Amino acid sequence: MKKQQMKGRAPVIKKFPPPRIEIINLIDVLITLVAFFILTMVLPENRGQLEIELPRAEQAFPAANTGEMVLELTDRHELFLNGRAVEREELAALLPTYPPDTPLVIRGDQACRYQEVIDLLDLCARSGLHRVALAVKNKG
Question: What pTM was estimated for this model as a whole?
Answer without folding.
Answer: 0.59
